[in-house]
């Protein structure tokens, strides 16, 4: 009887010892968001932004203000004679940004010379060709053997700057966005909106949106919530 009591005490002590073991971390699928977050923060994010618009609309100023960095420290502004003879080219500037431990590899693709010539018929051809080349490059890297260190240079978003001094979209704006909207997320931006009154801004914005809708152009809608959220949450 004593031996049985002793074995019972030993078993209870072993159970206590076993139950008091602490695991180093929670094990289960509820810990998956933390794992994804750690991996994302450690690896960082890549984002490529293209800014398109005529010269003097404040593209560089807006980008520098958005990301609180000077992306064009050595930029030379051409005079009127150089602008008239200048063709559209693409300048890609990459900068590493870190905020609150989150790293972002930002690439801004500028398009100097767009819309500055007298005849702008083919001014957007170089831009479309550049975007297609980045898609082909990414597909080629994805089809290769070393897929771990792929640099994503695809254009994720395009800020298209609209002049505030006109009465809506120009034919060049409409044609370019028609060529682009199936390839890139377009965000139309009314440049230098502070030169207009609130009523003028609302009137110009409505005119631009009506022209975009009538021409069948798809722009990026800024969502309040994800498309896969339930209907009750969407209503809230």
UniProtKB/TrEMBL annotation:
Annotated keywords: GTP-binding, Nucleotide-binding
Ranges for domain Septin-type G: 43-236
Pfam family, one: Septin
CDD domains: CDC_Septin
Superkingdom of origin: Eukaryota
Gene Ontology molecular function terms on file: GTP binding
SUPFAM superfamilies linked: P-loop containing nucleoside triphosphate hydrolases
Residue numbers marked as site, Important for dimerization: 165
Parts of the chain that traverse the membrane: none
Protein name stated in the entry: Septin-type G domain-containing protein
């Amino acid at each position: 009887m004593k031996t049985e009591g002793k074995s019972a005490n030993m078993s209870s002590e072993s159970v206590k010892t076993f139950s008091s073991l602490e695991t180093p971390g929670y094990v289960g699928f509820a810990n998956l968001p933390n794992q994804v977050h750690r991996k994302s923060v450690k690896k960082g994010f890549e984002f490529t932004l293209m800014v398109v618009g005529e010269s003097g609309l404040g593209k560089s100023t807006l980008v520098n203000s958005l990301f609180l960095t000077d992306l064009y420290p050595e930029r030379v502004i051409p005079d009127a004679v150089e602008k008239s003879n200048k063709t559209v080219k693409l300048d890609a500037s990459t900068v590493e940004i870190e905020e609150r431990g989150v790293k972002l590899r930002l690439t801004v693709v500028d398009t100097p010379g767009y819309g500055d010539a007298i005849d702008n018929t083919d001014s957007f051809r170089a831009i479309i060709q550049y975007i297609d080349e980045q898609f082909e490059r990414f597909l080629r890297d994805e089809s290769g053997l070393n897929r771990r260190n792929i640099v994503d240079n695809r254009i994720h978003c395009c800020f298209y700057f609209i002049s505030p001094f006109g009465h809506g979209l120009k034919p060049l704006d409409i044609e370019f966005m028609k060529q682009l909207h199936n390839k890139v997320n377009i965000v139309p931006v009314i440049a230098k909106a502070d030169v207009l009154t609130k009523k003028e801004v609302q009137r110009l914005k409505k005119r631009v949106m009506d022209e975009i809708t009538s021409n069948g152009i798809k722009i990026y809608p800024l969502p309040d919530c994800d498309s896969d959220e339930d209907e009750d949450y969407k209503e809230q």
